[in-house]
């Protein structure tokens, strides 16, 4: 930017907003030194300006009138940290239309209204940046967009939700049940009171939409792909796969190009323990990007939290100050993506767990159904104790078509000797 | 850049140069689409323009006269890939003085002549970029400099040499001796005929100099810090630490701020197996960056090789096209680093292996010496078989001052019952 002094206005003084204020309190000299000009946090707007946020705010900075930011001629960059669709969208559009650059961590809004937001930014010749929206503090969107720009991206997959990863890690380490770990996570503040968004994969899906658009140039709304969470996982599944098969269980968002199609999906996935992603534990996130020249690159760090997210938000502000005219973030990519493949077309290995009466002929029936649908078995494990009426059967398939697997499972489910819900988990190779 | 068409000249048509040509052959449409203008590889200069490099080059592109690049008014960006100090330095300075941006993968040159190169670039109002010089294809310098710019960097440490990591991985997996694995690595092309540069830590040191300058604003020449390689490591050390102590051995470059001092060093290091770096194997590199707000971030990928390195080189070209005026790469940081600490001042845990005659009183003498130098013992393991005359003794210390440890080792070495060289390996906690 040409100006000698840059003024930033913050809208939303919640947890992450307090993190941004904290960065300015502690590192403003560093920011100004790097920018080569004074960088000020000039205004902080929130409806609630009386609660103690645990950080010092200079008198006169706080306002409960958002227009003191959005319509303030002195403000160059607006940080939006209120989250959700409205009034966040209205505020962002107003800022853009007032020729202010916007930095946002709002993945829901960006994933849903991508085109409109990018268009309005472009029409007004300003930037909208959102590094913090995916992977929290991890530098992820910039490397994907810029550092790896010599590559055709082949696949993007990773652990994008800290709450789900914390729960799966604890289930694996302690053998605890999902509901018990969820409660513990809620007590520790790692999970929301209503955890649906995180544990059912919606948060991962929104992040994957953004990564997919940047990596493959294809915008895919959430209703167009398979999103499945971790609430049905049992510690038995995790333990068996860990000890007997050498797999870790992770909730993955996966987008990859197959010929000219895009495969995009969110679901719990078994990963070989030799894969670096399987060592990413607790609330940490990590995303694997594979390019045709660079090969695999993994970016790891804290995917959420006050300080890490605020780091990405302020990093975006500096990037705008340095590169006001940069347009790469919205740039097209030579993706040649035609179709988005339905998950039925997925080719994968599968883990199938079912519960059956321990009677002669059950395995014969099950293997017959699998065979009929062209699903070949890599291993089958039946581990009952003497006298059990019902025994768990765990089947690992060779690579099969998901549509066929679903048909087979439906038929197996209808067998009179098979009880309870059949658990199906995809295996990443 | 304002121009509608950007011409890039390549100096050095070796392995990585061929990778750059390959990227232009396969992905030029993508590069131009992302840049919003035509991006051409306009000239390729090398003394040898007759050897087959395995890639197609358009007629007229090749020249054996470097000045057809350096003095060509149509060339906007010069890629230097000849390596070494001269004539690379002369060529780069000429390009900069001719107002051409420069992209280089030449870590030796940049680490040694940092100040001169940056100054000449600045005087001529052009950029010099060198993402490929550290961590090959991994986006590393840009995230450190830009994405994490809201942070005071606290530490930078990682696996920066693929050859050394390949050797240590194989020694750990197969229990093989250093020299045998080195030979295998040479046969596979993972190690040079003269491997000194990689296995003795010099390559890691040069990369660490660059990271240190960017992260802490402090340029430290290699002669001012401790650099130690892996050639004295035995499979016994690796195996014992893996099975008995839960450590992996890695060659690490480490730079961290302690109060206002900078600690910088390269040496083999035991890392807890729970640390993600310990799962980085084979020729892969990974660097941990810790910032005061973002916490730990790890960036992982191929640290060398034709395609990965070429990816970073071409990525730098695009970054220059997008942000011709960006100056952040040379920006100062508010490091407040005063002194570079000598390794004698290091506080660390240590692994000490020695060989002693199995006689009464030996352990008494050793433990007395350690105690005298304020070194307390966390564990001591003496594992002889009955009848052995000489037995290995492995001592793990609590955190101690390296200067004291060195004095103790000297005294232990002088004991008449202690034989062979004493092995000292630092432990990262």
Architecture overview:
Two copies of one chain form a homodimer. With about 425 residues, chain A is α/β, with parallel strands linked by helices. Chain A is built from 14 helices and 18 strands. The first copy, chain A, folds into three domains: about 5-135, 3-Layer(aba) Sandwich (Rossmann fold); about 140-300, Dihydrodipicolinate Reductase, domain 2; about 345-425, Alpha-Beta Plaits (2-Layer Sandwich). In chain A, about 35% of the residues lie in helices and about 25% in strands. Chain A starts with a strand and ends with a strand. The model of chain A has no long low-confidence stretch (mean pLDDT about 95).
Kindly summarize this structure in a few lines.
The structure is a homodimer of 429-residue chains. Chain A is α/β, with parallel strands linked by helices and 429 residues long. Chain A contains 14 helices and 18 strands.
Secondary-structure map with pairings?
Two copies of one chain form a homodimer.
Chain A: E1 5-11, H1 15-35, E2 38-45, E3 62-63, H2 67-70, E4 77-80, H3 88-97, E5 101-104, H4 107-112, H5 114-123, E6 128-129, H6 141-147, E7 153-159, H7 162-174, H8 178-188, H9 196-199, H10 202-216, E8 226-227, H11 235-245, E9 247-258, E10 261-272, E11 284-291, E12 295-302, H12 306-322, E13 340-341, E14 347-357, H13 362-372, E15 377-382, E16 390-397, E17 400-401, H14 402-413, E18 418-427
Parallel strand pairs in A: 1-2, 1-4, 2-3, 4-5, 5-6, 8-10, 10-13, 10-18
Antiparallel strand pairs in A: 7-9, 7-11, 9-10, 11-12, 14-16, 14-17, 14-18, 15-16
Helix pairs in contact in A: 1-12, 3-5, 7-8, 13-14
Enzyme class (chains A, B): oxidoreductase
Family (chains A, B): Belongs to the homoserine dehydrogenase family.
GO molecular function (chains A, B): homoserine dehydrogenase activity; NADP binding
